[in-house]
């Protein structure tokens, strides 16, 4: 629960500190007046400067800037060259700071019994005053420095411009006149408050007559009457109130009230928000006292001394759900952060944190003690507290996962009033809330667009919430930290006090106690009214360690605390998980007293459709973490104590900037159990921080530190994906929508499981089971005669069920950051000329708002943006209630309900589609700009609503085609393809597209060319459409697509080989033999022999196939085909093939043959008789297997003897090369000849009949291979080894595969086909 979030060591002590509300920025000033801006999330220093003296970099930069703008060197001394003096205060100022300052003042005032606005809702956002700039404002004794962190340009205001008085403190005024722009008030050393305009950089007004000495602190707040006030504290101990409404033109303002607050001067003042009461002021003074003041009567409510011997230097209002009774944090010059419990009642001061236990031991020197000099709590995230010490900046984090003690109850059907139960101190109260708008439609209605065309969510009139709180139950037993949960039926409410430990189960109807006892953890089943309980023995209370007491008492208290910790650990290890069920009569019964699981202690229970149990595993803990845990557990705070879950679970190293997620470092210690059998149903998993299960038990979400894992549960468990939403604190399912709350944002995750193979299989099984059940019922009613069926003509509509991947889409609904505006340096030529800059701001804001809504046809308002601008997230930890009345409900720490609008068409359409109402989603899409319809259609397609998405009017044709294919609307898909490809008039029977006709086209030539290009671009889509039409027996659509694709295939080079082959197969499948024959002829004319031969083979015409090869020069394939089929044209084809090879060989480049090469060649070939014959080559003659030579005479059939067979061979006979069996007929490619330098190869006459029938020989005459190749003996037969496997067989009907034209590679030297 307690850990170190960030630490930055420094050499000097930090005396001033401030946090930015929305960005992870922290500004500090040390005792040497060095100011630095630090990004605590990324551990990076953004900016540093020496504010107390003269910063040379700023001085040089200012001079260069003036020279660049053409300004002459001023005569006087520049303000950057003036020494700033001691830094008194540092702060940020931008639109975010201004907005949240005003929000804090207004929300605090709204808690009063007669508040400013009876509706606890957000207010109108003020017009942007800084226009995208982020100012760092440094109040020094001699000047004020305004540094723009965007442009790094600065403006120094010397004290001479402020009546030459030293500046000691500052505050930004939230309300100002229209022409003044942002205002900043400076408290002077003479007791006068001077107000400076940040537009004109001139003094606007003064507050005089309030203080006799210097002013030490300033703060603005709002009274319950709605009046803006400025309070100042001075060195004279006075607390003075001023009016901060500047509508009047008075230049001198007098105080409204002055009262004596402290002796010795007021150090700081803070505003405290009280739940259900008027705001309070907290002041600390030099007299070591802390005083609390009522803001209506301004009477003192309480005065205490938190640490008697030390004066407080910092104070902060605090409201954390883990410590519901601690309201004020303060610091003195020691190593603690002190918390005050019930400030106006008991006012007990307790040490919240011992900071020396958080930092690494090596940081502190052996004899050095840690001292705190300043402290500030994060204005929007109360779990973050920053402290400035003598060793650096320490940012502590206090249990960011704790949620307010509130649980929403189910809303009765038809009711618009919603309710939630919450705990305050020892009271159980009911919060009723609803929208106060007169017309607020439910999800799916179209009435939330006003008559003026502005959506209520986007208009300045935000959603007003009407809420009421009332007491419902007698006092509950404890006032410490509690966890509330409601059963699945909503009839029972469980409250657990984990630090006591104790639990109670109440019946909602009469708030009677159903069950109670000792227990630290409780989890409900989402299907029935039963719960799991971690029951343990009551551990002894850890005693209080007094501060400042005697050493003997401190030792005794420490020993007692150690004994209590050991007893608590033993009690925790002996705890067991029980499962109890609440029956209809309201009685609780135990189902099992112990779940048979592991022996480790249980540290977590997670309810849902399955029971999740987390076990503690043995891990090594670093000394730093151990000391921090022991220190934290020894604090007897209300709401604190031994919670069982330490904050160091995720990481042992608190300084690690790259903290790993739980699943990466935590062991597998999480087990899921069945509620019925109490047996484990899964293996061990990493322990999630929380789990969320859908009410319909279809989806579940497991949250870890950096992401959320989302899974589908039906028909079986399936991982869908994870979304990168870090540090999520809670979530609620609403059908296929998961609304997630993080410390800074509100996210919506749209989820769909898609369609997997298991879904289709499960659907078929369910249909089979239904048929069997129907048959069984029929047999039971009518006997076995009911199974007799009459055979008749039954038409079964075939359904194409396509697989669909899962879809996860994250939309951010709310955050802390202000809507970004355009910085002035992007639109103005010069930054320095800003006198009239503020005059255009309201106009720009109005233009931006108007541009978000356009008026469509018929006066219907249309949202131009895809999603609405991010709404403002309520401050602090939130409980997500869910979607009711078309809005997302949230409840904050102060038990106030907030409504986030979902009425923007981009959000509303998605919510409706995820909810299952796709028809209403399409209707709402008329209010969304058509440029965003494609995005919405993609979303609906992912959700499984392709048919409904086709009705969106603004979708593109390409997406319309995909949607039509998904929804099996193939006729519309064909129309989209014809429109995209511009091919409506192409491929018709009366329009020919032969090559000759295309060349003679005159008027329609450009149209035809465009159509062909369009069809080529969408060829794959045409083929997919044809296949889909064939699968669903829509022959007309397939033929229409085939006509245009066949016409395009006739154009040379239009389609690729694979597409042409697919076209040929589909034409043959549809019986389009005439078009297929014409396609072959056109391909032959275009020179695409392979594709033409493939089409002819599909057609079954061997003559046409042979003609395709022959006319395109692919004679090798023609020869093999003619030989395999016994074609009479074989001889002519062989002659033409050999002539082509001889011609190619003669045109090949020659190489000089010297005498040495010829002599070496003669040694290898003994047949040569002279060197002159070495350069000559016989004509190339390559024959199919078994074919007699065409040039040699018919040899005399004579059996060669065994001795003669290895002797000289006849030169007229070709070499026989053994080939694969005749069943695997190879196809060949053109061959290249051997080098001219090779000697001629003479081979003896082998009898063709001697070759085996299964292995035909290929006689060929070619030169021998070179020395580098493998030698082939001319007397032996060489087995031809194809390079890429044996080619497919050639069937008798001419059907061949794609590899028909590929030839097995022969040896590289003697294979002239390569």
TrEMBL record:
Gene source species: Protea cynaroides
InterPro entries in UniProt: TSET_complex_member, WD40/YVTN_repeat-like_dom_sf, WD40_repeat_dom_sf, WD40_rpt
Name assigned to this protein: Transducin/WD40 repeat-like superfamily protein
Compositionally biased region (Low complexity): 1197-1245
SUPFAM superfamilies to which the protein is assigned, alphabetical: WD40 repeat-like
Region (Disordered): 444-464, 1197-1314
Compositional bias annotation for Polar residues: 1274-1284
């Amino acid at each position: 629960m307690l850990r170190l979030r960030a630490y930055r060591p420094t050499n000097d002590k930090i005396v001033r500190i401030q946090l930015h509300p929305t960005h992870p920025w922290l500004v500090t000033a040390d005792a040497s007046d060095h100011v630095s801006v630090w990004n605590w999330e990324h551990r990076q220093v953004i900016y540093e400067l020496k504010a107390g003296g003269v910063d040379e970099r700023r001085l040089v930069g200012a001079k260069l800037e003036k020279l660049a703008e053409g300004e002459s060197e001023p005569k006087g001394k520049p303000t950057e060259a003036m020494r700033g003096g001691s830094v008194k205060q540092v702060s940020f100022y931008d639109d975010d700071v201004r907005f949240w300052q005003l929000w804090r003042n207004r929300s605090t005032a709204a808690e009063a019994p007669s508040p400013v606005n009876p509706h606890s809702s957000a207010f109108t956002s003020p017009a942007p005053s800084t226009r995208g700039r982020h100012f760092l404002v440094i109040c020094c004794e001699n000047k004020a420095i305004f540094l723009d962190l965007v442009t790094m340009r600065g403006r120094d205001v010397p004290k001479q411009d402020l009546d030459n008085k030293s500046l000691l403190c500052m505050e930004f005024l939230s309300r100002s006149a229209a022409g003044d722009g942002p205002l900043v008030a400076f408290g002077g050393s003479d007791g006068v408050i001077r107000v400076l305009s940040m537009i004109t950089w001139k003094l606007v007004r003064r507050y005089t007559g309030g203080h006799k000495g210097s002013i030490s602190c300033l703060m603005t707040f709002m009274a319950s009457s709605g009046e803006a006030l400025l309070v100042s504290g001075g060195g004279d101990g006075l607390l003075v109130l001023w009016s901060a409404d500047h509508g009047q033109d008075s230049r001198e303002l007098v105080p409204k009230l002055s009262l004596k607050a402290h002796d010795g001067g007021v150090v700081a003042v803070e505003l405290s928000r009280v739940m259900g009461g008027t705001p309070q002021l907290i002041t600390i003074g030099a007299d070591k006292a802390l005083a609390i003041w009522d803001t209506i009567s301004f009477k003192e409510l309480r005065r205490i001394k938190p640490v008697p011997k030390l004066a407080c230097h910092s104070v902060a209002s605090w409201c954390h759900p883990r410590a519901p009774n601690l309201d004020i944090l303060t610091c003195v010059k020691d190593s603690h952060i002190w918390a005050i419990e019930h400030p106006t009642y008991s006012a007990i001061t307790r040490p919240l944190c011992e900071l020396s236990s958080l930092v690494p031991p090596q940081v502190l020197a052996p004899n050095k003690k840690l001292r705190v000099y300043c402290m500030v709590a994060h204005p929007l995230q109360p779990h973050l507290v920053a402290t400035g010490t003598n060793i650096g900046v320490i940012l502590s984090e206090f249990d960011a996962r704790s949620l307010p003690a509130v649980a929403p109850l189910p809303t009765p059907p038809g009711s618009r009033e919603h309710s939630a139960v919450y705990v305050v101190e020892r009271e159980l109260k009911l919060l009723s809330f609803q929208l106060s708008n007169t017309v607020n439609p439910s999800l799916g209605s179209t009435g939330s667009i006003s008559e003026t065309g502005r959506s209520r969510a986007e208009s300045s009139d935000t959603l007003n919430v009407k809420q009421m709180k009332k007491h419902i139950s007698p006092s509950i037993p404890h006032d410490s930290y509690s966890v509330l949960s409601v059963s699945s039926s909503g009839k029972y409410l469980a409250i657990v006090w984990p630090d006591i430990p104790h639990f109670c189960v109440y019946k909602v109807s009469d708030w009677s106690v159903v069950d109670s006892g000792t227990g630290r953890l409780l989890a409900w089943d989402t299907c029935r009214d039963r719960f799991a309980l971690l029951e343990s023995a009551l551990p002894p209370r850890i005693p209080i360690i007094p501060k400042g007491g005697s050493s003997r008492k401190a030792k005794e208290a420490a020993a007692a605390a150690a004994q209590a910790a050991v007893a608590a650990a033993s009690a925790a290890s002996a705890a067991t998980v029980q499962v109890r069920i609440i029956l209809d009569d309201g009685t609780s019964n135990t189902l099992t007293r112990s779940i048979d699981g592991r022996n480790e202690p249980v540290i977590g229970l997670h309810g849902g459709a399955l029971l999740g149990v987390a076990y503690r595993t043995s891990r090594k803990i670093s000394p730093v973490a151990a000391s921090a845990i022991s220190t934290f557990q020894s604090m007897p705070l209300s709401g604190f104590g031994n919670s069982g879950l330490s904050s160091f679970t995720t990481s042992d190293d608190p300084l690690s900037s790259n903290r790993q997620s739980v699943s990466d470092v935590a062991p597998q210690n999480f087990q899921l159990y069945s509620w019925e059998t109490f047996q484990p149903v899964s293996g061990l998993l990493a322990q999630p921080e929380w789990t969320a299960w859908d009410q319909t038990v279809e989806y579940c979400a497991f949250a870890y530190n950096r992401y959320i894992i989302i899974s589908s549960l039906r028909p079986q468990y399936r991982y869908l994906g994870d979304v990168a939403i870090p540090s999520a604190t809670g979530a609620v399912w609403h059908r296929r929508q998961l609304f997630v709350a993080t410390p800074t944002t509100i996210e919506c995750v749209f989820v769909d499981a898609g369609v997997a193979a298991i879904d289709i299989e499960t659907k078929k099984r369910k249909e089979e089971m239904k048929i069997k059940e129907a048959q069984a019922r029929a047999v039971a009613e009518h006997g076995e005669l009911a199974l007799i069926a009459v055979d008749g003509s039954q038409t079964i509509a075939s359904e194409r069920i396509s697989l669909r991947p899962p879809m996860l889409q994250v939309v951010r609904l709310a955050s802390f950051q202000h809507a970004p505006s355009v910085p002035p340096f992007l639109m103005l030529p010069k930054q320095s000329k800003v006198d009239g800059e503020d005059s255009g701001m309201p106009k720009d804001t109005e233009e931006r708002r108007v541009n978000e809504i356009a008026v469509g046809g018929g006066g219907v308002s249309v949202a131009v943006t895809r999603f609405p601008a991010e709404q403002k997230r309520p401050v602090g930890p939130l409980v997500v209630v869910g979607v009711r009345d078309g809005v997302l409900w949230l409840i904050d720490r102060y038990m106030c309900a907030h409504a986030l609008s979902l009425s923007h068409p981009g959000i509303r359409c998605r919510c409706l589609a995820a909810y299952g109402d796709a028809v209403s989603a399409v209707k709402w899409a008329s209010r969304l700009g058509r440029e965003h319809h494609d995005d919405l259609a993609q979303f609906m397609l992912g959700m499984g609503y392709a048919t409904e998405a086709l009705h969106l009017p603004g979708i593109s044709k390409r997406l319309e085609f995909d949607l039509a294919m998904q929804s099996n609307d193939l006729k519309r898909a064909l129309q989209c393809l014809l429109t995209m490809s511009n091919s409506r008039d192409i491929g018709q029977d009366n329009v020919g597209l032969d090559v000759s006709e295309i060349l003679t086209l005159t008027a329609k030539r450009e149209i035809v060319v465009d159509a062909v290009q369009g069809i080529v671009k969408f060829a794959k889509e045409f083929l997919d459409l044809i296949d889909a039409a064939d699968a669903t027996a829509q022959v007309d659509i397939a033929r229409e697509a085939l006509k245009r694709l066949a016409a395009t295939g006739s154009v040379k080079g239009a389609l690729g080989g694979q597409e042409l082959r697919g076209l040929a197969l589909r034409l043959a499948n549809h019986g389009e033999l005439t078009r297929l024959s014409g396609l072959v002829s056109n391909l032959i004319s275009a020179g695409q022999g392979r594709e033409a031969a493939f089409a002819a083979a599909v057609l079954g015409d061997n003559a046409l196939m042979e003609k395709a090869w022959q006319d395109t020069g692919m004679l090798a394939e023609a020869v093999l085909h003619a030989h395999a089929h016994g074609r009479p044209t074989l001889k002519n084809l062989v002659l033409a093939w050999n002539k082509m090879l001889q011609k190619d060989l003669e045109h090949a480049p020659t190489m000089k043959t010297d005498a040495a090469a010829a002599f070496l060649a003669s040694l290898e070939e003994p047949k040569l008789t002279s060197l002159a014959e070495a350069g000559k080559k016989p004509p190339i003659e390559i024959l199919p297997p078994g074919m007699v030579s065409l040039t040699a005479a018919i040899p005399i059939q004579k059996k060669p003897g065994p001795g003669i067979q290895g002797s000289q061979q006849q030169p007229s006979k070709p070499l026989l090369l053994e080939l694969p069996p005749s069943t695997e007929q190879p196809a060949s490619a053109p061959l290249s000849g051997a080098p001219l330098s090779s000697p001629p190869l003479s081979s003896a006459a082998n009898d063709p009949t001697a070759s085996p029938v299964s292995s035909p020989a290929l006689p060929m005459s070619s030169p021998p291979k070179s020395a580098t190749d493998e030698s082939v003996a001319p007397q032996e037969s060489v087995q031809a080894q194809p390079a890429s496997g044996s080619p497919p067989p050639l069937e008798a009907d001419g059907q061949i595969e794609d590899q028909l034209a590929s030839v097995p590679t022969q040896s590289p030297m003697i294979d002239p086909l390569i």
